[in-house]
Sequence to fold (358 residues):
Amino acid sequence: MVLDQLSIPIVLAPLAGGASTPQLTAAVSNAGGLGFTPAGYLTATALAERIAETRKLTSAAIGVNVFVPGDPAAPGAAEAYAATLADDAAQAGVDLGAPRFEDDDWAAKIELLVAEPPPVVSFTFGCPDRKVIDDLRRAGSEVWVTVTRPAEAAHAVERGAGALVVQGIEAGGHQGSFADDPAEDGNGLGLLSLLQLVRAAVDVPLVAAGGIGTGAGIAAVLAAGAAAAQLGTAFLRCPEAGTFAEYRQALAGDTPTALTRAFTGRTARGIRNRFLDKHTAGAPAAYPEVHYLTAPLRASGRSRHDAGVVNLWAGQTHQLGSELPAGQLARALAGQARAAAEQAVRRLSAPAAMTPDD
Fold:
C-alpha cells in the first residue's frame, strides 16, 4: 500500500475550497508524506488541470479526494434560510446566490480518475457503490473512505475500501459522515475513542484525522492503531497554502471553534465569527444548496477583508499551526512524533515505583 511506502506517516488533508494548491500538495509528498488534491467544487476538467499541475511539481505519490453526492434538501428549506440572510446580504451590498442541487460533476470525475488513476482516491460524505470502488481498484488506485462512526467503517470495508480515514469530531472543515448528523445528536466521537472503536471493528489500515496539530498528536494516534495521521489545519498557514490574510490571522489566534451548517448546509467546524454565531441555530441541512446561497456573501467578505462573514474552517488545535514551508513543517512534525514516541517508550520501560508493601 501507499501508506507502507511513505517515509513519514503524514497525510495532507484535501482542503477543498481554495486553501489547497498544487504547491502545497506537492510539498508534502516531496517531504515523504502523502499530499492530496481536492476534487470538491471543481469540474472534472478543472480537476484534470489541477492534477497535471501538481504532477509537474512532484513524482511522488499523491491522492485525490472526491465528494460523494447526497440527496436534494427538503423543499423550501434553503429558501426559508435565505430570508434570514437578507440583512447580511444588504449590508454587504450583494445578492444571495440561487440555491441549487448538483452532484459536483460526479460521473465525469469518476471517469477521469478511472482513465488516469492516481495512487489513491479517497471519498468524503459517504461511500460509493461497489462498482465505483471496483472500477478504481482495477484501474490501479487504492480506495479510501472517510468515516466518523464504527458502522460507517464496517459498511465501507464491506464495499471494498482498502483503507479508512477515521475522522474525529475535532476536525476542521466538513464532517465526512455519511449522514449529516453530528450537530444534532450530540454523540459525535472524539478521535481517540473513534480510532479504538474502528480498530476493534475492522482490519484495514486507518488514517487518523481530527485535531492533530503536533508531533505528539501524531505519535498518539499511531500508538492507538493508525498507520498515519492526516493533518489539514496545521498546514493552512504555510506559504504554499491558498489561505487569505484574515483567515491566517484567525488561525493564529485562540478564538474557539464550533460546528455549524450556516455557510454550506452541511456540518463543518470553523472558527467562531459573527455569521456563524448568528445563523448556526437556524441553518438547515441543505448541502450544497446553502453553499451556493451564501457563496456571493462569502466572496464579498474575502474581497472586503471582512472575516466575519467567511467560513474559517479549522480544527480545535488551530492555534498550534506554523508558518514554516510545508515540506519543512511535515519533516519537523515527523521528528517531533519520533521524539514523543521514544519518550513514551522510556516511560513504559521505567522500573515500577516501589510501594511500602513491596
User: Anything to note?
Assistant: The radius of gyration is 20 Å. The mean pLDDT is 96. The CA atoms of residues 37 and 327 lie 16 Å apart. The first strand starts at residue 10 and ends at 12.
